[in-house]
Amino acid sequence: MKALIVLAMLLMAGACGPAMAHAPIKGIGTFYNGLLHPVLVPAHLLVLAAVGLLIGQHAPRVSRLALPAFAAALTVTLALIDASPGALQQWPLLAIALVAGLAVALARAGSLVATALALGAGVAVALDSAPDGAPDEQVWLALSGTGLGAALVVTYVGGFAARLELPWQKTAIRAAGSWIAASALLVLTLDLFPTASPPA
Amino acid sequence: MRLLAILLLVLFGVGGAAAHELRPAYLEITETAPEQYSILWKVPARGEYRLSLHVGLPDVCAEVTTPVTAIVEAASTSRWNIRCDGGLAGQTISIDGLVATYTDALVRVMRADGTAQTARLTPDFPEVVVTAASTAADTARTYFLLGVQHIMLGLDHLLFLLALLLLIREPRMLVATITAFTVAHSVTLAFAAFGFAAAPQAPIEALVALSIVFIAAEIVRKQRGHADIAGRYPWLIAFLFGLLHGFGFGGALREIGLPQKDVPLALLTFNLGVEAGQLLFVALALAAIASLRMLLAFSAEQPRLVTAYLVGSLSAAWFVQRIIAFGV
């Protein structure tokens, strides 16, 4: 487990790249801009929805461990980037969304795999959440908002998925997982092999 | 070569000083008659040097008088009159050259009916669209959003609501309690806004913090099996503290300022905005609590106690901080 976490951290660190700008919404304040950040960045929303579905699909067996792990990874990494801001490329987020989406579609995930994915998602989302344009003294406020927003998305999606118990509802969750995996794969391919995209 | 270097240094030195001017420019446009306007334009200046900022007026406008410029108190001040066919409503005014500076420009358009529009233009957004005199619908929308914004940015009010959610377990009692809170703060908000009653803002803010400490303590007491008045009649406590919170909202509304007209409408929509924000928060909090129960399959008792202690500690710190702030 430790080796897996170390490997994930190394992959994330290796993937650090230039910051991507996410334009703030005027008039709602730094905290709420941070809160909405995970919802407004498609790659974040995709990975958070995938992890939420995964832990909700196997709740409470998997979610008891995976949700606190996600929250802890998110909080620690946000605290670290408050001290030393950086940014992540898109592919680690998409890769985690792809694997989590596939796990949801297959409806097979052990606690260990789900927890590892939740940890990776927490770290990846936090690493890519350095706020653009926020004054230095308010960065912590934006990051607090982002932490709460990301945790709420996973909690809501997970809680919703956990309530769905009828066979057709379980099938709908798996279909949602496959859509997430397909979307992540598509964007990941275009991201990693930009020349493969057709000319405009 | 050395001379060239000195020359470059001097040139860049002057340019740098001008580029880092932080005082805002000021543009005041006053409607003197239909389609007629007088303009006051102030640009920060140092000696004879002024920032290269210019007013960009729409094409429908033409100068009626030539600008008269004077350097007064470190500002270049110009005055002139213009005529705009069809008026300025809906037209865009820009400050040319603002994007190359670090400064802002304040724009104030004063209409003939006494209402005004004020905007702060920045290097990122160097233009403003002049609006027509605001309608009742504009006032309602503006104050509704201000109400939502106020409750959503008021962490102490939100924590009070969260504490109520943790204290009350029966849905019917929860609805009654939140309704009592709403009625109470609506009453004092109206009284404060119309000037029928007033309370100094600093002690009110301190008491708002104390009200949260009280509810947090009640949660702990209830958990230990002591059912006090707050446990039996939470709606009564919520009503009494709601009166306090209403004075807090009234103070915020006084700071924002009421419009020159449609005052009751502004007050009503501000209050509705507060209610909408409050309901949104309650819905999100209840959904989060229900989701966490599903995912973690915990008994609610321990987390409720931990949250009560966290909320109570934070509010106690606010109380002390606010007491110190007004020097008691």
UniProtKB/TrEMBL annotation, chain A:
Residues 1-21 form the signal peptide. The chain crosses the membrane at residues 31-55, 62-81, 87-106, 111-127, 139-161, 173-193. InterPro entries: HupE_UreJ (IPR007038). The keyword Nucleotide-binding does not apply. Keywords: Membrane, Signal, Transmembrane, Transmembrane helix. This is HupE/UreJ protein. It comes from Mesorhizobium alhagi CCNWXJ12-2.
From TrEMBL, chain B:
The keyword Transmembrane applies. The chain crosses the membrane at residues 143-167, 174-196, 202-221, 233-256, 276-296, 308-327. Keywords: Membrane, Transmembrane, Transmembrane helix. The keyword Transmembrane helix applies. Pfam families: HupE_UreJ_2. It comes from the Bacteria. InterPro entries: Put_HupE_UreJ. This is HupE/UreJ protein. It comes from Mesorhizobium alhagi CCNWXJ12-2. The lineage of its organism: Bacteria, Pseudomonadati, Pseudomonadota, Alphaproteobacteria, Hyphomicrobiales.
